[in-house]
Amino acid sequence: MIRALLADDEHLIRGALAALLSYEQDIDVVAQASHGHEAVAMAIEHRPDVAVIDLLMPGADGISVTESLTAQVPECRCLIVTSHGLPGHLKRALAVGAAGFSSKTLTASNLAAIIRALHAGSRYIEPALAAAAISVGDSPLSARETDLVNLAADGAPISEIAERALLTPGTVRNYLSRATTKLGVSNRHEAVREARARGWI
Questions:
Q1: pTM, two decimal places
Q2: Which CATH architecture best describes the domain 143-197?
């Protein structure tokens, strides 16, 4: 029996997936989580074989959750699912140890097949997302610079970005300044536009 954890802040989607997977005789959903920190805690408690993790969740995103599970529950294989499959997300997910990455358009039977494949030691990357990641090339931004450019995407002031990132305003300014230089733009707002256009955030 494959022990699975589902992590998604959309209760309807998570419940529907759990219900559909219950028809699979070899998959048992042993835990469900509605935010990132809960997903990590439940994985530590229940030791699932495979975790299906939404990319965008409150508390900690799917990439952060995957990084934590890779370190704390190394036997658990992580599949990140998303409605926002940008190339930069895929590359960051693979860098922290994700075994799979897919859009949320997959069917329940496809999800079950991917869970089985991951449990057997394989990887799964949705072909369209893999092709997009190859076509845009590598981002020049570090992981921290990428995070901060992403936090700047909604136009928040430096003080708010610093608070959300648990950094000082001066440190945030330094990271964003380096990011704008690397991207060849003049300010953080242009950095956001450039990084989005290239699929890096």
A1: 0.74
A2: Orthogonal Bundle (1.10)
Show me where the domains of the chain are located. 2-135, 143-197
Q: How far is CA 52 from CA 8, 14, 148, 158, in A?
A: 8, 10, 26, 34
8 A C-beta contact, residue 183 and residue 194:
yes
Q: What angle do CA 131, 137, 138 make, to 5 degrees?
A: 120
Tell me the C-alpha distance between 200 and 135, whole Å: 12
Per-residue confidence in pLDDT tens, the chain, 201 aa: 999 999 999 999 899 999 999 999 999 999 999 999 999 999 999 999 999 999 988 888 899 999 999 999 999 999 999 887 677 788 888 889 999 999 888 888 999 999 999 999 999 999 888 877 776 667 888 888 988 998 998 899 999 999 988 899 999 999 999 999 999 999 999 999 888 877 777
Provide the CATH number for the domain formed by 2-135 in this structure: 3.40.50.2300
Query: What token pair was written down for 163?
Result: 């608070």
Helical segments of the chain, H only? 11-21, 36-46, 62-72, 87-95, 108-119, 127-136, 143-151, 158-165, 169-183, 188-197
